[in-house]
Specification:
Keywords: Hydrolase. With about 220 residues, this protein is of the alpha/beta class. It contains six helices and 14 strands. The model has no long low-confidence stretch (mean pLDDT about 100). The structure holds nickel (II) ion (NI) and manganese (II) ion.
């Protein structure tokens, strides 16, 4: 499983011979100017919620790639009505896709589309594939529901928001990593806007002091699990 960071909360995942894009917000992020969305491959686009900083580039990428949009029922319906292919899910449910198993899990946040349309309730994803399991938290507060995840899944990586203001801060993300029982963390949802600027060194040290490994990738950089 290869995970590429496209800035903010945008990820590329290559797994099981398929390409997945998560929450594409690239053309609106000056820090991601080096990423050309017209070159990104996508069989699936996973969306945690409907906010503009998670769905901005969905239609452009889906039009070109014919990718299947996977999200909650309301977001899936929104895109189906615009003639895109979508797979609706809801909280607690999972589905075996051709690349692996995806579960839509709870997040504490909000989820309206930029045009005001209802975007259902926000979530995160647990992906089990190629004997590697990851948790993509989405935008969320720290929540006790995270404790449910390790009851079913032993995680190899937790992708957690750490930018504060709209989501967890570093301290809450450290507790979240305890809740999901995973000490390997990829941080996201930081630095993009003034509200969520973080001190990288200090954040990495705070995780390190608790025996945890926080990775902060350069935009365009990848990790292999
Ligand atoms: Ni959001
Ligand atoms: Mn966001």
């Amino acid at each position: 499983m290869k995970i590429t960071y496209y800035g903010h909360a945008s990820l590329g995942i290559e797994v099981g011979g398929k390409h997945i894009i998560v929450d594409p917000f690239i053309t609106g992020n000056p820090q991601a100017a080096g990423i050309d969305i017209n070159t990104l491959e996508a069989d699936y686009i996973l969306l945690t919620h409907a906010h503009g900083d998670h769905v901005l580039d969905v239609e452009t990428i889906a039009k070109r790639t014919n990718a299947v949009i996977v999200s909650n029922a309301e977001i899936a319906t929104y895109y189906e009505q615009r003639e895109f292919k979508a797979h609706p899910m809801n909280h607690g449910g999972s589905w075996n896709f051709d690349f692996g198993k995806v579960k839509y899990v709870n997040a504490i946040h909000s989820s309206s589309f930029p045009d005001g349309s209802y975007g259902g309730n926000p979530g995160g994803f647990v992906i089990e594939s190629e004997h590697k399991n990851i948790y993509i938290a989405g935008d969320t507060a720290l929540t006790m529901d995270m404790k449910l995840i390790p009851l079913r899944t032993k995680l190899d990586l937790a992708i957690l928001p750490i930018g504060n203001n709209f989501t967890m801060d570093v301290e809450d993300a450290i507790i979240a990593s305890d809740f999901v029982e995973c000490d390997k963390i990829l941080g996201y949802h930081f630095d993009t806007f003034g509200y969520i600027k973080i001190d990288h060194e200090e954040s990495i040290r705070k995780f390190f002091d608790k025996g945890k490994d926080l990775m902060l990738l350069e935009i365009g950089a990848s990790i292999e699990l």
